[in-house]
Amino acid sequence: MPSIAPITLREARRDDVAAIVALLADDHLGASRERASDPPLPAYLAAFAKIDADPRNLLAVAEDASGAVVGTLQMTFIPGLSNRGAELALIEAVRVNSGRRGQGLGATMIEWAMDEARRRGCRFVELFTHASRTDAQRFYERLGFERSHAGMRRAL
Fold first, then answer.
1. What is the pLDDT along the chain (156 residues), one digit of tens a residue?
2. Spatial CA neighbour of 2 closest among 123, 120, 101
3. Which end of the chain is more exposed for a tag (fewer CB within 10 A), N or C?
4. From CA 14, how far away is CA 26, in angstroms rounded?
5. Per-position DSSP letters for the chain, written without gaps between them
6. What is the pLDDT of residue 4?
7. In terms of DSSP bridges, do strands 88-96 and 69-78 run parallel, antiparallel, or are they unpaired?
8. Distinct helix (H) and strand (E) counts, the chain
9. If DSSP states are collapsed to H, E and C, what string results for 110-152?
10. How many C-beta atoms surround the C-beta of residue 137 within 10 A?
11. Helix or strand or coil: residue 32?
12. Which residues are CB-contacts of 116 (< 8 A; sequence separation ≥ 6)?
């Protein structure tokens, strides 16, 4: 694997929203459900405001040395009674710029997210990836994640 150029992972800011939405739209699923624009659509800004105001949510970006947003992920920290009251971190909406895939950026982002979960006292990390993202599933398995649950969804 080629070495990764230096990146910085940090909490997202409002001015990152357009770049984050562009990353979300840059795959076969996102292309049909996201709408990248600059400035971002009001619905994305409203969603960002809710995430940003909630201490149990963390929207993060990876930026390269030039300050360009090249990756993103969202984490939710969930208290629970099961597993003797274990808190878990849920990772979702992981995206890496299509031109930067295969360079180790995704692994760096997931390691950063797991470190953040440990720092917050979580005992488990779970993640969501769409069933059609078979490359992503292989990637997560290489990082030590195991298929353990069957997720289901219903539109409201």
1. 445 668 999 999 999 999 999 999 998 788 788 888 888 899 999 999 999 999 999 999 999 999 999 999 999 999 989 888 889 999 999 999 988 888 899 999 999 999 999 999 999 999 988 888 888 889 899 999 988 887 787 889
2. 101
3. C
4. 20
5. -PPPPPEEEEE--GGGHHHHHHHHHSSTTHHHH----SSPPHHHHHHHHHHHH-TTEEEEEEEETTS-EEEEEEEEEE--SHHHH--EEEEEEEEE-GGGTTSSHHHHHHHHHHHHHHHTT-SEEEE---TT-HHHHHHHHHTT------------
6. 61
7. antiparallel
8. 6, 5
9. HHHHHHHHHHCCCCEEEECCCCCCHHHHHHHHHCCCCCCCCCC
10. 15
11. helix
12. 58, 60, 75, 89
